Task: structure prediction
Amino acid sequence: MNQMAELISKLSPAQLDRLHQMIKRGTTGGSAKAVAQKKTFDAARHGNFNLIVTKPGLMESLQFQVCERKQPGKQEVEIEVYAAGMNFRDVMIALGMYPASPNVAPVLGGEVSGRIVAVGEDVREFSVGDEVMALILGGFKAFVTVPVEGVLHKPPTVTVESSAGIPVAFLTAFYALRHMAQLAKGERVLIHSAAGGVGLSAIQIAQCTGAEIFVTAGTPEKREFLRSQRIARIMDSRSLDFVEEVLKSTGGEGVDVILNSLAGEAIPKGLEILRPYGRFIELGKRDIMENAQIGLLPFSKAITLASLDLTWLPAARPGLMNSMLREVGGLINEGVLKPLPTRFFPISEPGKAFSFMSQGTHIGKVVFLVKGQEVMIDERLN
Result:
């Protein structure tokens, strides 16, 4: 099953009830007393705000707190956030279901777009007033300060709001298929959960590479959307039938690359349908953090299994991250890669976006509109 279905299947009865109530209300809730104690955010008075989960597992505990703006260091820029991309990871954090990892702080918000308002003394590539998009941990804020390695000028063909949905999805897909898998023209690639942001980005990268594309998606609506994008080989991500369907379509040979976001038995089954020298790129976290076991027999075909986690890149390989961001930006400027379908929500009502994404029905990206929104903050959380 896909990540959202797998997540929901592991919720406790209490968590399921809270999720149901949140979806029904489309709001973060909160008592009348708590609402009465909130104030409208004012940058001149408060400086900055941050969307946090005060009690992971309780969606209604999403709250805005006052926080400080950070003066940029020598190789940093400060961005006034216009929009912020939302990812599946954010839903898992809010539900208290994000797998514990020593290298990743469970904070909300991984990508933003906006306008630079301050630059560090050694920054030469960016200037105050530039419209940019950036990767960041903790991006559901009014202002963020980030190292320049994770910042890219906004492509002129994309609106500043839509560009907030570009960094995570396209960099993940580019890193997976171009850098890790070395996908080549004429090879076969299987992209799971292909109607999401990463999946649709991966389809575009595979198309411009000249690969033969196989995809899965979890609902009839998502599969119909993929058909509208002229994808021919479409299967159900919520069953293991894709194994037989891939083998049947390829005369028993299988595929060269699998971009995997499915959990459980789908992983060993996927390894079995790789051709000799095939590459399996794992995007999921649950099976890794639970130390799930797999057999080694498929590796007799000299296949490769690798996991992808972008959160290591800024510290471990900042140059690689920046070069890949530039390549993605160049392909967007050339019109080779195009912005993804995007659903916008005001950040002032975060519960609506979280409930929408929790249903697992969205196609493409979900993005918060930040600048100009009337955000209510709880000064007691400062």
Summary: DSSP finds 14 helices and 17 strands in the chain. Residues 28-34 have pLDDT under 50 and may be disordered. Residues 318-333 form the longest helix (16 residues). The two ends are 40 Å apart (CA to CA).
